[in-house]
Design a protein that fits this description.
Order of helices and strands: HHEHHHEHHHHHHHHHHHHH
Number of strands: 2
Shape: globular
Number of helices: 18
Distance between the termini: 38 Å
Radius of gyration: 22 Å
Largest sheet: 2 strands, parallel
Strand content: under 5%
Structural class: mainly alpha
Helix content: 55-70%
């Protein structure tokens, strides 16, 4: 855990700097690639995923170390060649896991968050899942295990492989010549994120594009077909936690409502988007038919609310970084409590961004929960040992946040609930 946190301490600021550079370059070019609340939602999603990963809230069914020890045919040293083999092996596994996520109803719920942005920029790369509670990567890493690639090599390569997928989430880089035949480029990935019929479920590679060419999922970006981004059943919410579970919630409801016991079972393993015939007729779901005339989700918010939403994000981000670097000190159980508070914070301010009338109820739960922690500990996770009057500052923040949420809810927001995420 400590090694992963150390990497994040460098990776997260680096990602944010690149995002700022993209925003500045886009502004200089007069390109519209970033919307404030969409980007804020993406960054908030990144916080939820990073928190889940640091706390280790994913069940590994079979560890790679266990697998390699039992099926490895060779005993090889950790040379640079082994790292190259490991990187290719991890990318091979990533291709098939990614493909499974696009083609099977249940696994799409693990991936929908990544495609949910209706923009395409570096921010949407941070939309990563918190709904995948178990890992099946061991199955697709079988080739590297047979070759005897050591577990410590895989442990080093995997985060590097993940971080290397960040840069190509942009519209500001065109086609890249000969590299288009070797690696995944921004052009390839624009196709992947598009909902145009020509582009759906194509270019599933993560680092190398030759897997798509080899397995029949390659599609070039066409000059006369501009990519349109998002998901066919639009999320219509800024709340990343709702988006993470919206497809699962639909599957649960459909499995409950269908009269066919066969459909109750097979719905989980059918192709993504499949619904029982009797349910789809009685309970239709909004889907985009004409991708070129779809109105993006963009509730109009007062400038003050937008500013306050960014303030909330900055405070939550700082809280996350504090937790990451204190979790070994405060203990794992306290880390889980802190992680829950971070999740509540994101749920609260993104609910307010959605103009939900029950935003105040969510904020009250968050404030009571946070104040309860201070009362119970007599501090805020040992903040008082670092900052004078730390717990008092936290309580003052809670009070300010609650008052402003009351204000925005009763003075500035519509009373309608625009999102279908939990409908």
């Amino acid at each position: 855990m400590s090694a992963y946190v150390a990497v994040l301490n460098y990776a997260i600021p680096f990602f944010i700097v690149l995002l700022l550079i993209e925003a500045l370059v886009a502004k200089a070019k007069g390109a519209s690639v970033i919307r404030s609340m969409d980007t804020l939602s993406s960054l908030s999603s990144g916080i939820t995923n990073a928190t889940k990963d640091v706390l280790g809230l994913t069940l590994v069914i079979i560890s790679y170390a266990w697998l390699e020890a039992r099926v490895g045919l060779f005993d090889i040293e950790s040379t640079w060649i082994v790292y190259v083999i490991a990187f290719i092996g991890v990318d091979f596994a990533g291709y098939w896991i990614h493909r499974l996520s696009h083609q099977v109803n249940y696994f799409w719920n693990h991936h929908i968050i990544h495609h949910s942005s209706e923009e395409f920029n570096l921010g949407c790369a941070l939309r990563q899942t918190i709904s995948a509670w178990f890992s099946i990567s061991f199955f697709f890493l079988l080739p590297t295990a047979i070759l005897g690639v050591p577990p410590e090599v895989i442990a080093i390569v995997q985060p590097l492989h993940l971080f290397a997928q960040y840069w190509y989430h942009t519209r500001l880089i065109g086609k890249m010549g000969v590299l288009e035949h070797v690696i995944v480029t921004p052009s390839h990935h624009r196709v992947h994120h598009a909902i145009n019929p020509e582009y759906m479920d194509k270019n599933l590679g993560q680092i190398f594009i030759f897997w798509d060419r080899l397995f029949g999922t390659y599609q070039e970006e066409l000059e006369d077909v501009p990519p349109v981004y998002g998901v066919k059943r639009p999320a219509r919410t800024w709340n990343p936690i709702l988006i993470n579970f919206m497809h699962l919630w639909l599957l649960i409801k459909d499995a409950w409502h269908t009269q066919s016991y066969k459909d109750k079972f097979r719905i989980w393993f059918m192709p993504t988007g499949w619904r029982p015939a009797d349910v789809s007729k009685r309970y239709p779901v909004e889907a985009i038919e004409d991708v070129y005339h779809y109105e993006k989700y963009d509730p109009q918010l007062p400038k003050f609310l937008k500013t306050w939403s960014w303030v909330q994000f900055v405070i939550t981000f700082a809280s996350m970084m504090y937790m990451f670097n204190r979790v070994l000190t405060i203990g794992y159980s306290q880390g889980l409590l802190y992680g829950l508070f971070i999740g509540l914070s994101i749920f609260s301010y993104t609910t307010l961004m959605d103009r939900h009338r029950w935003a105040i109820a969510v904020e009250m739960v968050r404030v009571v929960f946070g104040a309860g922690i201070v009362a119970w500990q007599g501090d805020w996770f040992s903040l008082g040992t670092l900052v004078p009057f730390g717990s008092q500052l936290v309580l003052a923040y809670f009070a300010t946040s609650l008052v402003l949420t009351f204000y925005f809810t009763h003075k500035s927001l519509d009373k309608e609930v625009p999102s279908q995420a939990m409908a």
